[in-house]
Design brief:
Elements: H1 2-14, E1 18-24, E2 27-34, E3 36-38, E4 43-44, E5 51-52, H2 57-70, H3 81-84, H4 97-101, H5 131-134, H6 151-165, H7 169-181, E6 224-225, H8 227-238, H9 245-251, E7 266-267, E8 272-273, E9 280-286, E10 289-296, E11 301-307, H10 314-324
Antiparallel strand pairs: 1-2, 1-11, 3-4, 5-6, 7-8, 9-10, 10-11
Helix pairs in contact: 1-10, 2-6, 2-7, 7-8
Length: about 325
Amino acid sequence: MVAGEEIDRLARDTEFSGVVSVSRGSEVVLARAYGLAHRGYGVPNTVDTRFAIASGTKGLTALVVASLIVEGKLALGTRVRALLGTDLPLIDSSVTVEHLLAHRSGIGDYCDEDALPPAQPQSFTSAAAYLPALEGFPQRFPPGSQFCYNNGGFAVLALVAERAAGVPFADLVASRVTAPAGMAHTSFLRSDQLPGDAATGYLEDGRTNVFSLPVVGSGDGGIYSSAGDFAAFWAALHAGRIVPPEWVARMTAVVSAETSTREQLRYGLGFWLPPDDTTVMLEGYDYGVSFRSVSRPSDGLVFTVVSTTSEGAWPLTRWLGGQFLTEP
């Protein structure tokens, strides 16, 4: 297979550690694992290894919120102050659920893209545990006036979702997204207590990322998943098994055409939208994590690349995009 040979070459040349998967519907076109899930013990990655996916989690958070809207427990126009009460008083009173989903809230971000790792990451063990870290960041611009990617906004959405439902956020993701999608290998894991089938992330100097990220993820990132689970995820999403089709269409419609990204990506409600108008994408980048999963619903094409390093996935995702997304 020419594609497989080229992927092997790229993986070798870039010292890639992770998994590459391409499928069309139920047909697996390519699935390969490279490198080590744990360097110290010499544990190899397999195609079923679970990896942290960082901000890839945001799409799952958005779907939890949409499912609560479908049930009438939230609305796009719900002002988050109604559920936050006196918490996070610097968030503007006019910020809505839709503003947060679209990265148009203007709230101050506890975790900027250029920020240092969170202090005391071991204290981040639930959505509510993020509250102290979210405090003290003033509003940046009027809600709704512009796009500005915001990790804190999705951490706030996790709080809003669990308060609206009366259920812990991790349980909401499990019951409303991963279970109906058949994502049996996707869950919030403690990074300091990983099971044997989960990969450890690594920094450029060879240290693990255990002190660089929250010990348990929340609405803005940190869930662990496998490449196979994302093939199942996209199929379930487009079939309306997570939220109704009209909500899938709404969440994957362009809300922000200008997002100031290198690839001229647009953004919907929790999902990145490449400029080709045929695909939908989730992506994650953090210390010891790089992840991208792309879906083309017209023919069931899905490709997913996930790596144990911050930069590892990108050469392979660029090649796959050129190989598979230029087809008619």
